[in-house]
Design brief:
With 145 residues, the chain is α+β, with helices and mostly antiparallel strands. The chain is 44% helix and 11% strand. The protein has 2 domains: 1-82, no CATH class; 84-145, no CATH class. It has helices spanning 22-29, 45-58, 64-77, 102-111, 113-119, 130-140, and strands at residues 2-9, 14-21. It starts with a strand and ends in a 5-residue tail after the last helix. The relative contact order is 0.12. Keywords: Signal. Residues 1-18 form the signal peptide.
Length: 145
């Protein structure tokens, strides 16, 4: 799996596509993401990279600075892909590889056609019970999202 980047050559005259090795890049950014001993949420760089690369393509992220920023944020927030929920202080509904807050998990779930119906009853996370916040988080935690 590779990250696809688009680079403009000779102004805007021609477009050249480059393939960047996703696993090697994720390993460089998250050097401890080589094994997963304890957590069912943990992913190695080799496991995470194909999903990250697909997401970059799906969301139209093609520049290397954007890719580096996003992968670095994910690695930092998830302790190099070891966690997909907030373990300290343990805030309900907070998680994914970038540890986004519950309101962003709701917005994200609403943006995914296969999940939208499962969260359509929620218009805000304000006042939701921890169980509902964690339900929303669980929907967006699978690797394909």
């Amino acid at each position: 799996m590779h990250f696809s980047t688009a680079s403009v050559v000779l102004g805007l005259a021609s477009l050249a596509a480059a393939q960047l090795p996703a696993v090697a890049i994720v390993q460089k950014i998250a050097p401890t993401a080589t094994s997963c001993a304890d957590s069912s949420e943990c992913r190695t760089a080799e496991q995470a990279a194909p999903f990250i690369a697909k997401s970059m393509s799906d969301y139209g992220i093609y520049t290397t600075p954007e890719m580096a920023a996003i992968v670095s944020l994910m690695a930092f927030e998830s302790v190099e892909f070891k966690y997909k929920h907030n373990v300290s202080p343990g805030r309900a509904g907070q998680g994914t590889a970038n540890m986004q807050m519950a309101q962003f998990n709701l917005a994200y779930a609403l943006s995914i056609p296969s999940l939208k119906a499962q969260v359509a009853q929620f218009t805000t996370v304000d006042g939701l019970a921890d169980a509902d916040l964690n339900k929303i988080l669980a929907l967006v935690q699978p690797d394909e999202f």
